[in-house]
Amino acid sequence: MAEASAEARTGTGPAFRVEGLTKVYGMGEVAVHALRGVDLEIPTGELVFILGTSGSGKSTLVNILGGLDRATEGRVFFRDLELTAASDRALTFYRRDSVGFIFQMYNLMPSLTARENVALVTEIDRDAMRPEEALAIVGLEDRLNHFPAQLSGGEQQRVAIARAIAKQPEVLLCDEPTGALDSKTGIRVLEAINKVNVELSTTVVVISHNADMAAIGDRTLFMSDGRIVNETRNARRQAPSSLAW
Amino acid sequence: MLGARDMKFLRDLWRLKTQYAAIAMVLACGVAMTVMAFSALNALSEAREAYYAETRFADVFVNLRRAPMRAARPLAAIDGVATVDVRIEEAGLVDIPGRARPATGRLVSLTDGDSLNRVLLTEGRRPDPDRPTEAIALESFLEANDMRLGTTLNVLVRGRLLPLRIVGAGRSPEYVLAAEPGSLVPDPSAYAVFWVDEKALAAASDLEDSFNSAALTLTAAADPPAVQAAVKRELAPYGVTDAILRADQPSHAYLEAEFEQLFTIGLVLPPIFLLVAGFLVQSVLARQFETERTQIGLMKAFGFTNAEVGAHYARHAAATGTLGLVSGVFFGLWLASAIMGLYAEFYRLPDVAFALSWPAIGGATLAVAIAVAIGVWRPLARVVAIPPAVAMSPPAPAVYRRGLLDRLGLATVLDALSQIVLRTLERWPARAAMTAFGLALALASLVATVFFFDSIDRMVARAFFEANRWQMSVTLAEPQPLRALAPITALPGVIAAEGTRTVAAEISAGAKSKRIGLIGLPQEAVLTVPLDPSGEPMGLPANGVIISTGLAKRLGVEPGERVRLSVLERSRPQVTLRVGALSEELTGLTAFIGLEELSRLMGEPPLVSTLNLLVAEDRRDGLYALLKRTPLVVGVEDRDQAVTAFTEELAEGIFVTMFFYVGFAAAIAFGVAYNTARIALSERSRDLASLRVLGFTTGETAYVLLAELGLLTLAALPVGAILGYWGAAYFSSAFSTEFYSVPLVVSSQTYGISVAVVVVTVALSALVVAWRIRRLDLVGVLKTRE
Question: How is residue B540 annotated by DSSP?
Answer without folding.
Answer: P
